[in-house]
Design goal:
190 residues; Jelly Rolls; 9 strands; alpha+beta; 9-stranded antiparallel β-sheet; 30% helix; 3 helices
Length: 190
């Protein structure tokens, strides 16, 4: 039996067993117990075509509405940070904490990005320009793609995996009008 047929049969059986709970009715059970004729209003039959054409779209719509509601609730709490089109002057914008996935930031010319706590991984995207900020002569930002140390004032390569190892003032300064930076870790923009 193919995977799609097996999936359809499994889905059908699960839905048939769970249908009374979803419908909030005991009509399916009570009809069978009362000896009602199969397919009658008291004991309806559920077919695969009903599940595929009626029930499945209803469930998908319900899941989609729930996901949209959750997304809307998350966006309601969103406050613009690095996505502002105006340059930020003497303002600090901080992440909500370290994340295990990358977040895309849109930075403007003159904005600076540095580690708030721990380490910061980032990737400068095409069309973006930035330079290294470091107070150290022999330490800067690690280019994990090439294995070299990028020192103060050096232009950052695009699409390279870059790392700021600790919170000691090292970071980047945006030189292009807009720069897109993918970041992972606890950061601040100033």
């Amino acid at each position: 039996m193919s995977k799609s047929k097996l999936f359809a049969v499994s889905l059908t059986l699960c839905l048939i067993l769970a249908l009374p709970a979803f419908l909030g009715s005991s009509a399916l059970v009570s009809g069978a117990e009362s000896g009602a004729a199969a397919g009658s209003p008291d004991d309806p039959l559920v077919t695969l075509s009903y599940i595929n054409k009626v029930f499945k779209p209803q469930i998908e719509e319900s899941i989609l509405k729930s996901a949209e509601k959750t997304l809307a609730e998350k966006l309601k709490d969103f406050t613009p940070s690095a996505n502002s089109s105006a340059p930020v002057q003497n303002t600090y914008i901080m992440s909500d904490g370290a994340s295990s996935s990358y977040m895309v930031l849109e930075l403007t010319k003159g904005q600076k990005l540095r580690v708030r706590e721990g380490t910061l991984e980032f990737i400068l995207r095409p069309g973006s320009g930035a330079v290294v900020i470091s107070n150290f002569q022999t330490q800067g930002i690690a280019d994990l793609t090439t294995g070299e140390e990028l020192l103060n004032g050096r232009s950052l390569p695009i699409n390279h995996s870059l790392l700021i190892p600790r919170n000691d003032g090292r970071g980047i300064s945006v030189t292009s009008v807009i720069a897109y930076v993918m970041v992972r870790g606890d950061y601040e923009i100033y």
